[in-house]
Amino acid sequence: MFKALVLQQDDHQTVAQLQQIDEASLPNENIEVAVEYSSLNYKDGLAITGKGRVVRSFPMVPGIDFSGTVTVSSDKRFKTGDKVVLTGHGVGEKHWGGMAEKAKVSADWLVPLVDGLDTKQAMKIGTAGLTSMLSIMALEEAGLKPEQGEVLVTGASGGVGSVAITLLHALGYDVVALTGRIENSRSLETLGASRVISRDEMLLDNKPLDKQLWAGVIDTVGSHILAKALSQTQYGGAIAACGMAAGIDLPTTVMPFILRGVTLVGIDSVYCPYARRIQAWQRLAKLLPESFFEQACEQITLDQVPDYAEKILQGQVKGRLVINI
User: Fold this and answer.
1) Predicted confidence (pLDDT) per residue in 8-26, tens digit
2) What pLDDT, on the 0 to 100 scale, is given for residue 319?
3) CA distance 39 to 285
4) Is 80's pLDDT higher than 90?
5) Other Cβ atoms closer than 10 A to 63
6) How many Å apart are CA 44 and CA 263, to the nearest integer?
7) Given this model, what pLDDT does residue 18 score?
8) CA distances (Å), origin 107, targets 110, 149, 276
9) Residues 47, 206: Cα–Cα separation, whole Å
10) CB neighbours of 167 closer than 8 A, spacing ≥ 6?
11) Distance CA 142, CA 196 (A)
12) Cβ partners under 8 Å of residue 239, min gap 6
């Protein structure tokens, strides 16, 4: 038997409960992992509260990422005792996820823990940090360089935003943090933001083309904020769109793309190819300072997850939430 957070449907409502699960109930996959840490992401919040159509079938163990130690393997790529990390691949949505003491998953979904990180640090980074690194890599490939000007990070107080600020600062960029919680300004500046602006500034009159402000943008929220950022991106600049917390719509025009040559790159961390994942994890291990793991992360327990799932959807969570399984 092992402990897990289990989601069930009761009269079309999602109910989350800690349960003892028989090992025989684990999915029929080729790698078994003793989970050490998971993390609570925005998507997990949607799944656990039932406020988003994330979970495809019930019962479901949530948790879109985890780290731990291989205990059983029938795949030559991994052996007993290997430290591994899982992000994405529908885990916690279509397949049982990381908010449990044990997980059984496909070897195709795992990556080995890279040198320089332990399993706790890996989940302090988690899906959010991987998404941040993939976004920066995309901006670099689009030609972004530190000397070109300020880089805007939207949703800066959240998990993706906080890691993105830290990484951009480490790479020498001048970072502007956009947040709906201006009271977090000091902590965002500590992470590396040169200045902080209120989300309200981006909700004002949205012109097809506005004053050119940003050399690049990492956008975690979508909708009107992304549209405004597009209108303010410099000639030849680039935006990495990696979230949709504000909505899936994009009320913009083709003018930023045609008249300013702006590049909009979509970032998917769920099915990102193995080689690119490894590259991103290796860079994360090298770039993130020890201060990030101390300042931008909070640890919680499995029984606290349902309460924090509500908080993360209400914008009451700052930085990363790591679950000590």
Assistant:
1) 998 889 999 999 999 999 9
2) 84
3) 18
4) yes
5) 30
6) 30
7) 96
8) 5, 42, 16
9) 33
10) 132, 133, 136, 284, 287, 288
11) 25
12) 216, 217, 218, 219, 226, 229, 230, 233, 262, 263, 264, 265
Give the separation between CA 238 and CA 256, rounded to whole angstroms. Answer: 10
DSSP class of residue 262 equals: -
Q: Report CA 284 to chain centroid distance, whole Å.
A: 13
Structure tokens at 222: 């979508």
Q: Which amino acid is at 55?
A: V
Closest CA to 305 of 36, 96, 7, 67: 7
| Domains of the chain listed by start with CATH number | 2-113+291-324 (3.90.180.10), 126-266 (3.40.50.720)
Tokens of 99: 């908010």
- Cβ atoms of 119 and 107 within 8 Å: the answer is no
Q: Please report the DSSP string for 80-124 in residue order.
A: TT-EEEEE-TTBTTTB--SSBSEEEE-GGGEEEPPTT--HHHHHH
At 172 the three-state DSSP class reads coil
Q: How many helices (H) and strands (E) does the chain have?
A: 9, 15
List the single range of 136-150, 211-225, 294-308 with lowest mean pLDDT. Answer: 294-308
Q: How far apart are CA 180 and CA 154, in angstroms?
A: 9
Tokens read off for 84: 């591994």
